[in-house]
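Table S2 (continued). Query chain:
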Amino acid sequence: MGRPEDTDTTAHEAVFGVADSVVLLFDEAGTVMGRPYAAERLLGYPAAELGGRHVGSLLAGDETDRLPGILETSERDGGWSGVLLARHRDGRTVAVDVTVLPLPGEAGPARWLVVAVGAAPSRQWTMGPALLERMVTAMPVGLCFVDSELRCVWSNTALEHFGGGTVEQRRGKRLSEIQPGVNADVVEWKMRQVLATGEPVVGYEHVGRTRAHPDRDHAHAMSFVRLDDDNGRALGVCYAVVDITDRYRARLRLRLMALASERIGRSLDVMDTAQDLADVAVPGLADFVAVDLLDTVLRGAEPSPGPTAAGAALRLVRGGAQNVHPGGVREVLDPGEPCGYRPSSPQMDALARGRSWRAAHLDATTRVASLPLSLIETAGPPAAGESLPHTAIVVPILARGITLGVATFLRTRRDEPFDEEDLRLAEELVARAAVCLDNARRYARERAAALVLQRSLLPHGVPAQEAVEAASFYRPADELSGLGGDWFDVIPLSGARVALVVGEVLGHGIDAAATMGQLRTAVRTLADLDLSPEELLAHLDDLVVQVTRDGTATDLGGTPNPAGVGASCLYAVYDPVSLRCDLASAGHLAPAVRAPDGTVTFPDLPPGPALGIGGLPFESVELPLAEGSVLAFYTDGLIEAPGAGRDGLLRVLESRDLPLDELCRSIADELAPTRPYTDDAALLLVRTRGLAAGRVAVWDLPADPAVVARARVMAARQLADWGLEELAFTTELVVSELVTNAIRHASGPIRLRLILERTLICEVFDASSTSPHLRHARTTDEGGRGLFLISQFTRRWGTRYTAEGKIIWAEQPLDGDASDA
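Corresponding output:
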């Protein structure tokens, strides 16, 4: 027999394996330092061979991949313990218990202390009855054994925390008797399924109320395993229960926030965004949600920063509401209707203080105070099936330092009170919606301003004139802002003529719209000079070149802005007397012309250079038109869609004989129906008219002063034929002065023409290019007052030049009021 101390040492080593332990030091790179004792007994390596080896050469299989995680845990927790598979020197795998300790910096190059202990066979546990009983009774997971009739046979202590009593109180009872709040039918169906098939069910989630928590739904993860005897006969089922309520609620919150991210803010409409918030929160958080906005938000005004003082001047408007139960809160407000609350209400308090309010349980007084006045005034005894709110949350809608409104969350049928987690969830939903609401509010304000700008830049309708009937269509590519760079115009000119304009600026949005406005204004100004189409485009091109060269085409941020460079424009002048149209193009597409017989052609119009190129000439063409012809002026955004093109425009014009407005809409629907739009599109349709011969009177006059009196008489007779005797005096004065000036200052033949349109137009043609001008004659002067008198007695007058000379014209309103515009 050995000594007692030897026997004790042997027994100790047999149990704990100390004799097979090895202590290793590793540096930062994972290399063994020193000569570890007992390494040969555990791993088969002599101490001399271990020094300098890397830890990876001592581990088997994929154990090296675990090292980063082990070291990180050791650093964080001050150490790590576990089992690793080591590689013995003879190639076999050895399971060792390992403890890893980080060393302080004072230890020098040694970084890690590792103690490895061999797992001797004597250390393997034997799962005896005592150990098993201890395990199932002490386990924190609820366990229960039921027999083949699903009646409780045994349960552990942990199951008592769910309510339902001790094992003695449970024994012999079904689940529906133990936990009335649990949906026992579903759970027992799972048990029967396991009894019949023998296949276990793991991780089944069940939501319900237990006796331990009768006021709130709890979530449980349940697993079911069949229990068999030695002969394989089913004895019953063992089920395990784990409370996963926190994880379940966190998952619901994440799901609700994901839904909010997906649905709130899809639209840049304030009302739609408010309704999105109500739709998302019901039924996930509340049974009823009302979103009330300050009326300043809907009007586009800028709300005051910070909380809003409650008072009589504060006006709320119902932005959106959702009710999960038809018999829930009696809702009497539609979106957009005013919504008032009592000054002492939680809503007004939340607006004034900028803080949320929660009531776990609403008493009668608080319930009334938290409802809109319109609902209180109509409230009577609860209707059949109607539930009263029993818990509430009120959250102010705050974004970027301003108050936008208030959101009210109520529960009616769902009897769980709101808790702090529900309040935080409501605040997070409202915060997300508040940013979207503010974005929508800002967008609505900016878009309204942009649309005002756009409407101010485009014609508001066809001006009064007799030359053409017109219809138009305009669609910007940027539908959100409603701004584009295309434009069209109908401009009345002298002599009953009309200018027809269509143009296009490169780009989209507000920059293109601003440039378009500049070009449109320039065209209207140049048109007032009665220039020919090619002359007008030349002046417009010079203007664009000059602005670009002067460097004024730079925005406030220093970014160059071409200010019309590359823009295109088509300018046409139609004369209803001669039924002739003169056209010139600056890089723009030629119009389509539909003759009265239905044939459609595209005139051979020289395209000309785009605006801003400079130095290249423009050329006009003369196009005779029959009365009733339709001209289609357009931009390329109308015909660039697949299957459109000029052939598509030709096809629609040839196949549809419709009123002009309907034809315009039909062309737009046919050629540009798809989205997203890649370019702005504008369409101007005009149907030509002609002045009847009886409404135009023309006389050729010799350059003889004696003819002036005869001209006055002929004009007076013509007015009598037209029934305009009341204009005879002023017309004779105008004719006398214009004919006298032509005889005195001009040369060649003289022609007098009267045109009866919406106004009475008097024109005198001569062969001189001398420009007349208004003079202020002195008291002693015998002449020089003719044009001054004409300007006083007519609505407007002017001069336009032709290839043969010039025309001086004057217009009188038919009602005799020269000041009428």
